[in-house]
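Please review this one:
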Amino acid sequence: MPNPKPTFSLFFLLSLSSILTVRSATFPADIAALRAFKSAVKPASIPATSCLATWNFSADPCAVPRITHFTCGVTCSGDRVVQLTLDSQGYAGKLTPLISKLTQLINLDIGDNSFYGAIPSSISSLPNLKNLILRVNSFSGALPPSIASLKSLQTLDLSRNSLSGSLPNLNSLAGLTRLDLSYNKLTGSLPKLPPNMNELALKANSLSGPLTQSSFDGLTRLMVVELSENSFTGTVEPWLFLLPSLQQVDLAKNAFTGVSVSKPAPSPANPNTELVAVDLSYNKIEGLLPVNFAEYSMLRSLALSYNKFRGPIPWQYMSKKGSSLQRLYLDGNYLNGSPPSGFFSGEGPISGSLGDNCLQSCPVSSELCLKSQKPVSICQQAYGGKPKS
């Protein structure tokens, strides 16, 4: 009877050989790019338990299973690197221009670390990149105009860095849905924005000039606008609030001097029932409070604090048939007259503040009136009276 052992051994060796040949080596240019990436990071900033610490090039970066080397930070598809996502360990260094060699890269996320220096313009050579996340680092210099070449880009988050200069024209990024450049040092005006954005966040920069309709033209999917803590000027025009998908608008802490609000169009094509929150606090807006805010049926929060509004609080803000406001912040203006009684009767769940105005009959028992009203002499001066000598 023949001995079965050689047959078994031969089968085992063939199987092992088959497994080994399936594990193809990582594309050489990708290995070179990963080497350059790690070399540009200061060794002292790489903790022993971090992802980068496991990048030992004696092993194949895309090999599986990953037991001791390249255990995290790198994701492959076949022999190509498609994702580079680092943990938050305080890695310090520059982003190597050779990152452009990872031509199949889809996600690049090195946020919440200590990378510094310029963002390399060669990043434009990543045609498949969908998500570029460099937030919470120390990148400086201008935003490379070449970023506009990343036609597949969907998310661009460079918030909380030290980027300066003006915004490049990103209108060609038709796939971009989220743009967050908040907490940088960007200057200049707002250019024309990419057409399919859902979220625009540019707060805490030094952007200036008026908001023009041409910048927002065609943005039918825009839901969130965060432009607070800049130096925008002029009047906030009605077209902004009429953007069909808009839900949240934060323009606080700018230098706007006016706001104009029209009624939403009562048509299926543009019902504009989405607007939920508006913040125009800490500007220089003068005139009467915009009555038409009460016509936005989904508006829950309206903040107009610390401007230069005068006159009475519109009764429509409390109308059962109209406004659905739940939070109303009007403190720090020059409003006069008596607030609508419904604010204090328990008929509506209004919270917020009406203090630091020129109001009469604002009951101190209400949380809305916790801040005291302005002195009579200041109110008289605001309405044309003679100041005390």
About this structure: Helices lie at 5-22, 28-39, 238-241, 376-382.
